[in-house]
Amino acid sequence: MLRMLTGLAVMAVAVLPHAAFAVGTDDDEPPKPTETTTTCTDGKVWDEATKTCTDAKDARLNDDTRFRAARELAYAGQPDAALQVLAAMTEGETGRVLTYMGFAHRMAGRLEEGQAAYDRALVLDPGNILARSYMGQGFVVQGEIELANLQLAEIRQRGGAGSWAETALAHAIATGVTYNH
């Protein structure tokens, strides 16, 4: 089984190099840095309309803008800033918010908090394959390979074969290397 997963991971990285490094959304490309990560500090978000760094709670920002900023911040290695932006989202604890909360906590080394966020995301949507992939990667970090394999099987069972979520988790299981962006 491990040999098959290793082969899958190598093939996926060779064939899908961009997908192998994406944080994972419907977009398989990493987010491009914007002023949110190049100019703003302290969890502020670049507001295109005013051309200023804006508090994430500012009513002029919508949740999609906040989410893109949180994704960019997480990718840029600023998990606490990403959490600050996610907390400002008005949509509440939705699947996408909880998935990235889990990711940001995991990147900050708070594995238990990350797992709890993934659990809440999966209660809302058991088919959230990105949450399952990130959860499985957390299990790999903890040395819980059997639990990671269970998440990989769930991803495949729920139609995620060939997705970034499957590829990233299979790679992490095979190599021990998780995605830290």
From TrEMBL:
Pfam family, one: TPR_2
InterPro entries: TPR-like_helical_dom_sf, TPR_2, TPR_rpt
Gene3D superfamilies reported for this sequence: Tetratricopeptide repeat domain (1.25.40.10)
SUPFAM superfamilies registered for this protein in UniProt: TPR-like
Keywords carried by this UniProt record: Repeat, Signal, TPR repeat
Keyword field contains Cell membrane: no
Start and stop residues of the TPR repeats: 95-128
Domain of life: Bacteria
Keyword Repeat included in the entry's annotation: yes
Signal peptide (residue range): 1-22
Protein name (record): Tetratricopeptide repeat protein
Species annotation: Fertoeibacter niger
